[in-house]
């Protein structure tokens, strides 16, 4: 299926990655961090991880640094106009991104990794839990689901893709059923269910494939 078109532009995606890198331990030879982010580090990451709601997240300088620059890079038709709702939406995103341990940079959604089982093992996230996440409507509930999903994926995902998906998820809330097939939840469901089936079919011996036709 054709991938969902991202809402964040390239400059915004780069800022998300730089912001996330600024929260990580630094090592010699690492790519330089933009000047305004150099004061951030593991302390800010720990504070974000302890936040339980949007009010606490919005009280963190790291959250405001993420959101303020994304708003500035938004452009005329971007998803983050200069208003309080944009800051609140990015606050929830910041609280999840702070729990990412490894930026895969593979362009794939978190849902692919949640439904991907190794050999005969169960997928990292059960179907019951995945469906509960898709049904969630209250932001506090979704925030807990998103954090839990990331934990089940070992904290590894594409940082920029996750930020775009979680922002889009919030924007999609309340849209009509006619627009549902363009939404993040539909694409996550496809990635969780059908991509797992496609991977299994790819590993199936050619003889079995012929017999099933």
Automatic annotation (TrEMBL):
InterPro entries registered for this protein in UniProt: CRISPR-assoc_prot_Cse2 (IPR013382), Cse2_sf (IPR038287)
Gene3D superfamilies, alphabetized: CRISPR-associated protein Cse2
NCBIfam families given in the database record: casB_cse2
Annotated protein name in UniProt: CRISPR system Cascade subunit CasB
Source species of the chain: Halopseudomonas yangmingensis
């Amino acid at each position: 299926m054709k991938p969902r078109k991202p809402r964040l532009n390239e400059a915004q995606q780069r800022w998300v990655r730089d912001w996330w890198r600024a929260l990580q331990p630094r090592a010699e030879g690492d790519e330089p961090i933009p000047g305004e982010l150099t004061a951030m580090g593991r302390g800010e990451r720990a504070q974000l991880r302890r936040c339980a709601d949007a009010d606490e997240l919005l009280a963190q300088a790291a959250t405001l640094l993420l959101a303020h620059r994304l708003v500035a890079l938004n452009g005329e038709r971007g998803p983050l106009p200069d208003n309080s709702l944009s800051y609140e939406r990015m606050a929830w995103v910041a609280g999840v991104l702070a729990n990412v341990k490894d930026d895969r940079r593979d362009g794939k959604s978190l849902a692919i990794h949640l439904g991907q089982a190794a050999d005969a093992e169960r997928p990292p996230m059960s179907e019951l839990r995945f469906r509960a996440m898709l049904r969630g409507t209250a932001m506090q509930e979704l925030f807990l689901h998103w954090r839990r999903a990331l934990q089940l994926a070992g904290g590894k995902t594409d940082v920029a893709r996750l930020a775009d998906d979680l922002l889009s998820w919030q924007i999609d809330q309340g849209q009509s059923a006619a627009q549902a097939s363009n939404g993040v939840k539909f694409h996550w469901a496809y990635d969780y269910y059908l991509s797992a089936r496609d991977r299994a079919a790819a590993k199936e011996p050619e003889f079995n494939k012929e017999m099933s036709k």
